[in-house]
Structure formats: C-alpha cells, structure tokens
Amino acid sequence: IKYFPEPFRIKSVEPLRMLTRAEREQKIKEANYNLFYLKGEDCYIDLLTDSGTNAMSQEQWAGVMKGDEAYAGASSYYKLVEAGRDIFNYEYIQPVHQGRAGEKVLFPLFLSKGKVAISNMFFDTTRAHVELAGARAIDCVIEDAKDPAKRVKFKGNMDVAKLEALIKEHGAENVGLVVMTVTNNSAGGQPVSIKNIRESAAVCKKYHIPFHIDAARYAENAFFIKRDEEEFKNTSIKDIIRETFKYAETFTMSAKKDAIVNMGGLIGVKDGNSDLVLKIKANCISFEGFFTYGGLAGRDLEALAIGLYEGIDESYLQYRNGQMEYLASRLDDAGIAYQAPIGGHGAFIDAKAMFPNIPYYEFPGQVLAIELYKEAGIRTCDIGSYMLGNDPDTKKQLKADFEFTRLAIPRRVYTQAHIDIMADALIEIKQNAHKITSGYKITWEPPILRHFQAHLEPV
Ligand code: F0G
C-alpha cells in the first residue's frame, strides 16, 4: 500500500549510528540478554516503547520556554486544566509525572487486600499497582483477542458476559474497580468500541462498581472508532473522545503516548466536587508534589497542554495510522504473523508462530527481540510470558495468552525508510527461524516487574 505522507517536515535531527553485527552480539550479551540494559546509543532504531519517545513540535518547544515555574498556581497548570476539561469534559484534572504515578495516587482509594480489579487487560505497571494496593488484577478481554491471526474489529474489547460472571463470582462488593484500557496495549494496541464501553459501563452501574479508563492511547482509540464504528463515522475526534469518557467516573493517563510529550500524566475525575478529589489531592501532595504541578516542571505542563491538542488532530492521526498500515502490509506480503489487524501504536509480532518449537518458559517473544537487535540494531520488547512474570501467590511462571515481540513506534520520529528496515529485518529472521530451536532462561530476577531487570542466558 501507499505510504501516508507526514503532515510535517523535519527541523531538528538526531544522528544515529549502526554498530556491526559482532558489536551488537557483544552488547546484548553484556546486557544479560535483557534489552532494557542496552544503552540507547547502541540501538539504531529504538522501538522499546512509544512512551516518552515522541518528537515534540515547534509549538511545544516554544511552550517549554514559556512554562511558568511558580510552585503553586502556575499559568501553565491552568492552561493544562483548561485543555483537559475541554477535551475530556471532566471537571477535575490532576497532573502527575507519568501514568503509573496516577495509578499510585488513585488505585489505593479503590483497592485493598481482598479486592479485585477487572480490566479488558492491564498493562504491566498497572497490574503492579493493583497488586501493590493489595488487590488482584483480572484480565477480561474478548476471546478473539487471543487469536493473533483472527482479523476482527475492536479486538481490544472487554468480554462483557465474562465481566458480569466475574463480578458474580467474586461478589460485587469485592470488585473495587473496573478498568477499561484504551487502546488495549497488551492485546496489541487493539481498539475498544464505544458500544463495548457503553455495555461495560452499564454492567458496572448495575452492580455499583466504579468504571475507570486507562487512557494512555485514547486518541488512537478514537481514530479507530471514527474509522470502524458506523455510528461515529461523521463525528469529530474530539466528540468521540468526549463520548468515550462520558461513561467513566475517573481516568488515569500516561501522557507520554498520545499527548506527545516526553514526560507527564493525568488523573481525571468527572465530578469535581467529590470526596475523591480531596483524597487525590492529599495523595498527590505526599507522592508527587503540590497538586498544581504534580511532579512536573511548569514547562512540562505547558508542553502537555499543547500536545493534548496535537495528539487529537485528525491529519496527524491519519498519518500515524498510515504508518502502521504500511508496516502491516509489508508483514502481510512476507507472511509474517502479528496481532491482526494492526493496532494503534505498533506491530505485535507473533513470536510463537515464528518459533513454534520454543516453549513459553523459554520466552519466544524475548528470543525474537534479541534476534531483531542482532539483525539490525532494532530494540523491541517481549509482551508475553517473560513480561507477565510469576504468579504473585504461587511464584510459578505464568503462561501468557500470547507471545508477542512488540515494535512500538514512537510518534513523529521514524520515516518510511526506517519502517522498511523493520520489515526487512523481520523477513530476514523469518527465513532463518528454523535454525533457532531454543530460547532463554532467567538466571536472576527481582520479585516484581522482573522483566525490566532480570538477567537471562541462552538455554
Ligand atoms: N497504562 C498503559 C496502557 C500503558 O501502556 C502504560 C505504559 C501505563 C499505563 C503506565 O504509564 O509509563 O507513563 O507510567 N506503557 C509504556 C509502554 C511504558 O511501553 O507500553 P507510564
């Protein structure tokens, strides 16, 4: 397919360097086969995450100069609050330094020991904050999401019947929170429909359970709704966003994704006068700083206020999605399996399909991530059993529903030629995949969020 042209041109550049294959093999070995230990400068194309790795615009950089650094009541704070209210139609907007800070502030207000939280799928840090609050996290995505080859729209949706069954099983009084993650990152950046949001919210209402949105990629989700949900094909992105958030009472957001900043996050509360807001402010003051800056510098608040609008611009979203579709078409041509149709922020390659003989406990997603680095200096990450980790109660390795290697594409950063290098590297690896018959084992791991720090070695 045709590459959708960038609605911008490049004003400032960041040089890259490519190591030799021998150097890369040495670097990944020194990194204990954990890509998080690699230096950024040793990666030619860095697809570890789309979080905080985005390119800011000239308006955002100009905003950085104008940022108001007042400790309390900075004008940049008010500008951010105004943007947040305008876009989400929520009364209370709380800046925090990133998404997980929002989770740390908010989740203990809903969750404690003995409670569960249910989501279409929790991202790893979000799951960790549920567990840190003493509760247990349950994923409840539709079954279709578990079959990477099955091309269905809104593959990130909640399984609404299962949600209700889980509520009955655990008792409504024990379900502290239902979290709708848009887009569904762990299922492949797959979108959630308004219909599904409405139905999930209705179940929560029936059982008096708070309904919360994990909004990291809300703008990409809105783009999919406009493209694929008949009712909204003539609705503006902003109105789709307002419709999305209407059904929840609260949201947390990592602004490092769709708000196109390098650092930042938000908590939103629909009812600005609630007790909850007082508790959020109290927690925020303890953990993040005074509630008018929430762990961010004034310049960050200013860049975020601007980025929120740039991230919902339709021509930008079209280009963003076009880049994904172009990568997907190259993968389709080469017969490389991925979570299809392609999601909003990258390609989730089906590493189980690439390496059918490598068992989940030897981490096929990690195997492919390491091969991509060796092949072309591309840094990616495992979204599979390696990331999922051990059962918090039994400490046994969990088996993930998928074994993905995620190529998360930063926003406004890489060009068509870079996308071609990604596809070419995957094709090269696929051609030699039969030669790789074993994976990796963990030689050391910390107790929580182990994938960031674990040491591995080839089996
Ligand atoms: N929720 C979702 C759905 C996320 O994808 C992330 C982060 C967070 C919450 C936490 O936000 O990083 O700002 O603290 N995801 C990144 C990723 C790290 O690579 O997918 P954070």
UniProtKB/TrEMBL annotation:
Record PTM N6-(pyridoxal phosphate)lysine, positions in chain: 257
Q: Which UniProt keywords apply?
A: Lyase, Pyridoxal phosphate
Q: Which domain of life is it from?
A: Bacteria
Q: Cofactors per UniProt?
A: pyridoxal 5'-phosphate
An example of a Pfam family matching this protein is Beta_elim_lyase
| UniProt GO MF annotations | carbon-carbon lyase activity
Q: Tell me which residues make up the Aromatic amino acid beta-eliminating lyase/threonine aldolase domain.
A: 46-424
GO BP terms: namely: aromatic amino acid metabolic process
Family named by the database record: Belongs to the beta-eliminating lyase family.
Describe the subunit structure: Homotetramer.
Q: What is this protein called?
A: Tryptophanase
Organism, by scientific name, is: Zophobihabitans entericus
